[in-house]
Structures are given as structure tokens and as C-alpha cells.
Amino acid sequence: MTLETQSFETLGLSPALLRALAETGYTTPTPIQVEAIPFALAGHDLLGGAQTGTGKTAAFGLPLLQRLSKETPPKGPRKPRALILVPTRELAVQVSDNLKAYGKYLRLNVTTIFGGAGMQPQIDNLRRGVDILVACPGRLLDHMESGHAKLDAVEVLVLDEADRMLDMGFLPSIKRILARVPKQRQTLLFSATFEAQIRALALEFMHDPKQVQVAANNTIAETIVHRAHAVDNARKRDLLVELLSRRHTDQVLVFGKTKHGCNRLAEQLAESGLPSVAIHGNKSQAQRQKALNLFKSGKARILVATDVAARGLDIPNLPLVINHDLPMVAEDYVHRIGRTGRNGASGEALSLVSPEEGGLLRQIQRMLKADIAMDTVAGFEPSRPVRLDTPIPKNGGGGQRRQPGGGRPGARMGEQKPGGDRAPRMPGNRGHGKPADRGARAHAGPKQHRGGAGKPQGARRDTRA
Ligand code: AMP
User: Fold this and answer.
1) Does the beta carbon of 58 sit less than 6 angstroms from any atom of ligand 1?
2) Which is deepest, 4, 16, 253, 333, by most CB within 10 Å?
């Protein structure tokens, strides 16, 4: 059966799930859902090459809900039968919200566990009984150590955004958690990239997994126009104010480098008459959710975010993304601008580039295999030109970064080989689909700045923003 003829019915989902999906507004399954759901329903372990935006949550969530709903829970207080490990609290909330929507007609309890929120409400939820636990590794360990989270009834384990969890240094915690989950279980691992560490994790903890892969949906849309303004670091904020004032009706997502920087930027924008909200890792969960809701509902026009805080968030399509600072990691550029130009809409990605960031720009252009047109704005000309051969500062002038494969933080990034070991590839390079960077690698030589970047993606490194 071809992908087009697949429906949720033909995938073998139960009437209760079909009804909820119809109410959610999903009419046809996405490619990752078509590929993954039958394997997962059949009880196989699964390695999914997909990232946020592809519909991966339903790809693992629907089979999981179906499985748990068919079984009678063991007697006594309900202990989690499914554990979903996620890197961030935002993703935990998002996954849990999705599962609750899909499982609307099932009697299954979903609860979240993450840091930055009070322990007691989480303990109370665990005590009340949980079927599905969506958790960030660190806080889950706390609850395990205090005896509140018991994982001996887990039948299905999901590692969501596994590459990102590893990037964030969660591997030791994940291993400790896995040691406490029954060996007899189904394991589903989703990751945008499959580097050595992920392959090792899969080999160690999975049983003969089926492999499915879809191209990232945050490929660079042809409809995005990439532009850059050369400007001195010290003048970036003024230029941003100028640009935001000119585009006074558009919703804009502004990316900054550090938590502190984002905070200051949001405050300064507000002082300039441009009310903004900020999300980053130093904000409490409630603050982050509030800011995000304000932005999503259109009540806030400007959202200032760090990469990690914004990753995985279901932010609506936007006309404009501004990079106040260039990302230290070229792939983050793709994630950032993936918020604009969706579904054929036109979008604009605008980067403010200081002379110190020339090397970072070169890194992005290399990955895109395209040049980004750069100009200056009258009155904001930089004191010296932006040169692409500028060395990349060790710490990028910002927070710490991890190297792919757990290298030392702050090491130089300029030497990455495009399409090298960072390319998303399934273990053993078997399985369905094609490496999601194939399109990117097929293009040789520089191109102009409009789209044409294929599907670049690869390892990601994050600061804990
Ligand atoms: P995810 O990759 O799971 O974060 O999903 C990305 C977005 O796609 C979310 O807003 C989902 O609600 C939505 N979504 C997932 N599956 C479908 C589908 N089959 N049809 C329409 N929207 C979907």
C-alpha cells in the first residue's frame, strides 16, 4: 500500500483512538506514523529517525496507548507501564498534552515529571497512580531515589529526542534509569541523528529493532529568504529595535545566544516600546509556558528565545525569524529558521552578524551549501568588515557548548566536515528511507541564498539554555 492510501484505520488503530484523532483534526497519518505504527503495534522495538514536527509523538504514542488500553492494569496502586524520557520540560508537557488528546476516550493516566517545578505535586501524582509517565531524566532519578517513582512495571520505554538527551549530558542518568526498567519490554527510540553514541545505546538496550526514517520536516523551505546585516556587536540591539519597529505588525521570533542575553534583550526591547516575552532555561516552567502561550495566541508579538528553550516547541508558522546572534552550531540555524516559511508560506530569516561572527557565518553557509546575502543598514555599518575567515571564538562569546560525541565544551567548531559523521544514518545503514542529508550532499558548490539547501541536519550540540 502506498503512503497516500494509508489512513489511521488501515494502520490498525482502535475505534477509541480513531475517534480522538478525528476530533484532534488529524485526517491522514504522516510518513513517520505510516512507517512506525504497524511495527510498534506488533510489539517490535523501533528506531525512528525523525524529529519534532514530523508527527513522531503520535507515531510512538498511538501504539503505546493502544497497547496499554487493551491490558488490565496489574492489581494494587497503578505503577507506570509506559515511560517516555524526554530532554526538556517543554517537550514533556507537549508529549503529555498530545497523549491526553489521543487517549481522550481511554482510561489511562498520563503524568509529567521534570525539574524546575515543585516535587510534591509530582509525588502526589505518582501516589495517585500513573499509567504513562513522561519524564526528564534528572528529576525522574530524584523520584526514583526517594522511592516515589517505581519502574518495575514498565512495559514500554520511549526515548524521545535521544540525540538531544545525549547532547545535554543525560547519558549517565538514562543508563541508571534503564537499569531499573524491566528487561522484558518494548523500547522505542526516536532521534534526529544517529551518531555513534546513539547506535551504542540502541545496541545495548534494544532488541533487534526495526528501523524507520523520514526526512526532517525542517528542511529549509524554498520559500525562505535568508539575509544578513553586518553590524557591530554593540549596535545589534539598536538595529534590532529599528528592524522590529519597521515590521511593527509581524510576529517575530528572535534568537539570542545566552539565557542572560535573552532576558536582557527582552527587557531592553520592552523599554524601547516593543513588548516581548522570553523563554530560556532559567525561567520556571510556569513562566516559560506562560510566555509561550502568550506568543502562540498572538498576544505577544515578539518572543526572544535560546536554542534549547525553543527546540521541540510547536511554534506556529512565522513570517520572520531574527538571529540576534548567530548560533554556535550550524544545524541550529536550520532549527531556528524552520519556524518560518512552512507549508509554502513565504518566510524570512534575518541574521545580525558582527565581525567576530564571520567564522560562524561561514560554517552556516557551508552547511547550507549556499551563500547568505549580506548588506548593511544605513547608520548601522560595522566598524570593520565581516570576514568569513574570522576564527570562531572558543566559547562563541556565549555559553558552553558540547562537541558531537561528547567532546570538550568550547572546542572549535569550524572544522566540522559537512556530511561527515554527523549525518543522520541508521545503525548499520540499513532500514527504510534515505539519510536525510542526501539532498544536501548532492548539491556541490555554492548557490545563491534562496533555499536550495536540501536537507541538512546532523549532530546537534546544545547549551542547557
Ligand atoms: P510532533 O512531531 O509529534 O511534535 O508533531 C508535530 C505537529 O504535527 C503537532 O502539532 C501535532 O499535533 C501535529 N500532527 C501530528 N500528526 C499529525 C497528523 N497525522 N495530521 C495532522 N497533524 C499532525
Assistant:
1) yes
2) 333
